[in-house]
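Intended use. Records like the one below are meant for learning the mapping from a protein sequence to its folded structure. Do not use them to infer anything beyond what is encoded.
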Amino acid sequence: MNFSYTVTTKKGIDKAIEDIAENLKKIGFGVLEILDFKNLLQDKGLEFDWNYKQMQVCNPELAKQVLEANPDLGLLLPCTIAVYQKDNENFVSLAKPSSVLYVASDDVWKFIGKDIEENLIQVIENSK
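Structure written out for the chain above:
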């Protein structure tokens, strides 16, 4: 089982993030936060030259269902999409919800994770 789904994009990092955020709205997701690891690490005195941004994305309805069913599964939330540049190429990478929820003992959540994953992959494909 592959942990992530990664594609290349011809778009710049900020444009890719903008387009992903817009397409997420169509499936009831929103962006909670965008972490800029280049700035975060440099602020801590560490040399890090990559443009690497991580989007924390969530569907509030699904998050509520997960938390009500099993608060421990909240540790696996929110979904994460990274947009970064490596070797002069831009990438969009999703931590696959089916992989993250694989640790759940309830098969229902594994199935829901797969459904979420398919929707998020479609968002990435439509945004690249």
